Amino acid sequence: MSYRAPIQDIRFNLRHLADLQGVLALPGFEELSEDLVDAVLDENARFVEQAIAPLNRSGDTAPATWSDGKVTTSPGFKEAFEAFAQGGWQGLQHDVEWGGQGLPKLVGAPASENINAANLAFSLCPLLTDGVIEALTAVGSKAQQSLFIPPMLEGRWTGTMNLTEPQAGSDLAQVATKAVPRGEGVYGLFGQKIFITYGEHDMAENIVHLVLARTPDAPKGVKGISLFIVPKFLVDADGSLGERNDVVCASLEHKLGIHGSPTAVLMYGSNGGEGATGYLVGEENRGLEYMFIMMNAARYAVGVQGVALSERALQQATAYANERVQGQALEGSAGPVTIAHHPDVQRMLLTMRGLTEGARALAYVAAAACDKSRRHPDPAEQERNKALYEYLVPVVKGFSTEASVEVASLGVQVHGGMGFIEETGAAQYYRDARILPIYEGTTAIQANDFVGRKILRNGGQVARHLAAEMRATVSELQAAASASTDHSDGLALIGRRLDAAVTAYEQATEFALKNSQASLPAVFLGSVPYLMLAGVVHAGWQLARAALVCSQPSVQQQAPEFCRQKLATSVFYAAHILPRAQACAQGITEGVVANRYAATTIGI
Amino acid sequence: MSYRAPIQDIRFNLRHLADLQGVLALPGFEELSEDLVDAVLDENARFVEQAIAPLNRSGDTAPATWSDGKVTTSPGFKEAFEAFAQGGWQGLQHDVEWGGQGLPKLVGAPASENINAANLAFSLCPLLTDGVIEALTAVGSKAQQSLFIPPMLEGRWTGTMNLTEPQAGSDLAQVATKAVPRGEGVYGLFGQKIFITYGEHDMAENIVHLVLARTPDAPKGVKGISLFIVPKFLVDADGSLGERNDVVCASLEHKLGIHGSPTAVLMYGSNGGEGATGYLVGEENRGLEYMFIMMNAARYAVGVQGVALSERALQQATAYANERVQGQALEGSAGPVTIAHHPDVQRMLLTMRGLTEGARALAYVAAAACDKSRRHPDPAEQERNKALYEYLVPVVKGFSTEASVEVASLGVQVHGGMGFIEETGAAQYYRDARILPIYEGTTAIQANDFVGRKILRNGGQVARHLAAEMRATVSELQAAASASTDHSDGLALIGRRLDAAVTAYEQATEFALKNSQASLPAVFLGSVPYLMLAGVVHAGWQLARAALVCSQPSVQQQAPEFCRQKLATSVFYAAHILPRAQACAQGITEGVVANRYAATTIGI
């Protein structure tokens, strides 16, 4: 089925939860208005619904093909990418200096969500290109920026990230690709990279590979990695294309999902010459640091992919449940009803909606923090928002993507037997979603980052601050429940459950802080549950804030149906999903004993 | 990778948890011994490892094909099925009267688990045939039994269940296939059936379709459905094959998983004649009742498939984790280690093991109850075990299959990026598992059965009895913790968590009983969480019982490594999985408010 951008929920989130007004008031965004943002998002919706979404299923059934080093993408992808570039969508969040639109991340995030929901496999090409632009903007030389960024913004060239090698998956210390200096910042690269998304394709004239490699005298481990630009075609000083570089696509992977996205094995310097020509970015041995700029942006973007995939699966399941007639209602008049009337179908749809809308709200709140961290006039506010954004990136990435697997799986289940038939489409989301908790750092990697850098390193300060803010929302909920005539029970329920979930969050945080010295493995045995706990609580907090807004008579009058839905989603989430926080905390806080036993199982 | 039957865990479960001795003492099983059971299971392991497991991946990549009504199964399947039949495996649990081995379900269950773990898609053929044999044994005429059962036991013929029609999925009241009487118990059938597993194939000489259809004057709804035998080839009185019946395979489905299993659309009576020849089973209009005999056996069997799929995914993930070297250990000496050393990989593997081994123990305990319900000399014990088995069937089906989806998903995650590559094999389990919570009654259908028939109908009596038994185990754990020197902390943890989980189980039960009159939808909004709660608690109870056994010095001396593993699994399950029971209960008990809000979302 076709995709409809969830414009109403997006706008609600931007305005009421993610402080769009505050972001638009930041220096540099003076010329923007809410109306302009609306217009951009409307156009975005129109474009992705018409040009991108229809290629989702066909990209799945007709994947990109490889022949003699050349890759032909799925039918229609090349034309869609051209339209994407002409619409200016690649430049949405990038600097006007190089031809971008310079819009806030808070506007870029929903636009990106829609593109990804329309077609996850297609959207990976712009997603990776975004990362390359972001990295070069931050650490490239002026010459590199002016040579490589504008063609990427125009969609004539695309970009890739080359980290993984067969022997080194998540462990970048093992990167072995060699970079032999030829002088003047030029190097010859030799090695093999795997899992390179859109590493070869026919949608653009050139491909800008950002490659991690080691120079001959580099120190071992992650401190000896440098970053190089390796274009598919060499580029003359005037930007015109020169000869083909010695980087070859040896094969494409046969994957579980995202079939429309070609995943390449790339060979660098395999032609027996002086290697693939690469240009050093920044300084030698600082490659990992630079790559992290790109990776943080990409991790956030993959979190948004999780929201997007969830939304798509939710839309299809909701439509099916309201169309498929089967069985009798438990109560009321006899006769067949749509399956949306059955309580368990409601449970599944509300679980899907709660996870989707909660993850969306959290992602947008994070985007606003990113914008403020860059542009807020008050340095203290910049600092506070920077800490918040960095804290939220692994949560958004880890929680939204794990949630998307659950949502897509429920989407299959809502369809019953039809869900298992490929033509229905629900199975594709289940397959596509499965990559999201893996690439750009597995959930475990996100959890390591979360516990190590975002909790322990600052002594739990950010977490304690958030707990206090969430408690304030609990108080608001209690007050609103007392004052409300229509929604007293619902608001009270949300307040009660959020309160308990915040307690769980505090318990997990205190456990991590207390045991980080004595038993780090005991802490890390619960690091993913802790990350999931944080996601569950923070998403639930945003849904609680949404419920407060939607219980206001003035808001209800404007959008009664929307408010009814949001309240139902928020109440359901509080009842059925927030309690997972306590379940996680109970596991985490048994970490010392559980770890002692778990350690005995290694090697079997 | 290849499959190894988990013989040690199977034996442990049979002896220490599922009362093998008690089952072997039942009337009719006098000639069996533990040694004989061991020999059967050893031979079963050898057979499935060598003959069935190697076809798992090839069946996935080379599915059955359809051409002009004929179906050719995946390479090797026909020969494997012949070997299966010659080994006598089809007759394992069936009556000696017709040529079966007459073994207890408690022996049949692990044998069936191994066959399914070796190759889920292959095993569906014997699984459905089992159901047909069981149904005809129970309700077929002597003539039907002697004509149709022996060839199925010999593997010359196979069987299918034909329930689903396009307009009627789970709702059998909508079945519309017509059966026009021709006299003397013979009918002409007209209609279309979908999702018919092994509805057409080339592995046997004939196929015995059991078909639900309506006679011309039948009442509406489920009380007007009759059951018919419709053989692919008509059968003469001496059992020789006659002409081809008018049942045609119109197409095969293109599915997410179990590619090796042909899923057929069957047309009955489409050749313009007097319909497909069918023979009435039992009496008219009692078809649903008869089909339930088959369905209960099939539901239990699908629950065992969940265990099997989980075991297979677990074995592959464990092997990979102990082979793949990546990253440094958190503590101890520097240098690369296998990923099994990383705490989060331990968490994933222990979650997989806990769910797999807990579900296995529960399934075997249910099998023993089934055997005792049929053969126990004391009628009161028969009755008690019958109630227990009937209570456990939806739990085994619902919990084991939902767990298998989680286990298979974790199995992909353990492999990181490699898990998303089809050649690795982990992705196949993720795809295959997804059908298990759907076919033979979705999880929601199991939950309806559980809450409606197994809780409310007996006033919660079975549940209260189980709660009391579980509390007794809690007391044993507390006593054992006080007495133990080595495992005091682990046993105490298990006791503490089991106690809390039993409380949650009681809360959910009381909520269902209390609200079944006033607000049935509020109860059914939480019916699947309640079923999952029951599964989590009962599986955890079995793992707690296993921990008690494994903490005994006499048992430890005999199998120290096994005991260490089982204790670690049980402790981990208690810490990280049992708390889900409380999370479920919290959602369930908010049902009244949550349902009031949920009901407002229908139709959007």
TrEMBL record, chains A, B:
<feature type="domain" description="Acetyl-CoA dehydrogenase-like C-terminal">
    <location>
        <begin position="467"/>
        <end position="591"/>
    </location>
</feature>
<dbReference type="InterPro" id="IPR046373">
    <property type="entry name" value="Acyl-CoA_Oxase/DH_mid-dom_sf"/>
</dbReference>
<keyword id="KW-0285">Flavoprotein</keyword>
<dbReference type="InterPro" id="IPR013786">
    <property type="entry name" value="AcylCoA_DH/ox_N"/>
</dbReference>
<dbReference type="InterPro" id="IPR025878">
    <property type="entry name" value="Acyl-CoA_dh-like_C_dom"/>
</dbReference>
<dbReference type="InterPro" id="IPR052166">
    <property type="entry name" value="Diverse_Acyl-CoA_DH"/>
</dbReference>
<dbReference type="GO" id="GO:0050660">
    <property type="term" value="F:flavin adenine dinucleotide binding"/>
</dbReference>
<dbReference type="Pfam" id="PF02771">
    <property type="entry name" value="Acyl-CoA_dh_N"/>
</dbReference>
<feature type="domain" description="Acyl-CoA oxidase/dehydrogenase middle">
    <location>
        <begin position="161"/>
        <end position="264"/>
    </location>
</feature>
<keyword id="KW-0560">Oxidoreductase</keyword>
<comment type="similarity">
    <text>Belongs to the acyl-CoA dehydrogenase family.</text>
</comment>
<feature type="domain" description="Acyl-CoA dehydrogenase/oxidase C-terminal">
    <location>
        <begin position="285"/>
        <end position="449"/>
    </location>
</feature>
<keyword id="KW-0274">FAD</keyword>
<dbReference type="InterPro" id="IPR037069">
    <property type="entry name" value="AcylCoA_DH/ox_N_sf"/>
</dbReference>
<dbReference type="GO" id="GO:0016627">
    <property type="term" value="F:oxidoreductase activity, acting on the CH-CH group of donors"/>
</dbReference>
<dbReference type="Pfam" id="PF12806">
    <property type="entry name" value="Acyl-CoA_dh_C"/>
</dbReference>
<protein>
    <recommendedName>
        <fullName>3-methylmercaptopropionyl-CoA dehydrogenase</fullName>
        <ecNumber>1.3.99.41</ecNumber>
    </recommendedName>
</protein>
<dbReference type="InterPro" id="IPR009075">
    <property type="entry name" value="AcylCo_DH/oxidase_C"/>
</dbReference>
<dbReference type="InterPro" id="IPR036250">
    <property type="entry name" value="AcylCo_DH-like_C"/>
</dbReference>
<dbReference type="Pfam" id="PF00441">
    <property type="entry name" value="Acyl-CoA_dh_1"/>
</dbReference>
<dbReference type="InterPro" id="IPR009100">
    <property type="entry name" value="AcylCoA_DH/oxidase_NM_dom_sf"/>
</dbReference>
<feature type="domain" description="Acyl-CoA dehydrogenase/oxidase N-terminal">
    <location>
        <begin position="40"/>
        <end position="155"/>
    </location>
</feature>
<comment type="function">
    <text>Involved in the assimilation of dimethylsulphoniopropionate (DMSP), an important compound in the fixation of carbon in marine phytoplankton, by mediating the conversion of 3-(methylthio)propanoyl-CoA (MMPA-CoA) to 3-(methylthio)acryloyl-CoA (MTA-CoA).</text>
</comment>
<dbReference type="Pfam" id="PF02770">
    <property type="entry name" value="Acyl-CoA_dh_M"/>
</dbReference>
<dbReference type="InterPro" id="IPR006091">
    <property type="entry name" value="Acyl-CoA_Oxase/DH_mid-dom"/>
</dbReference>
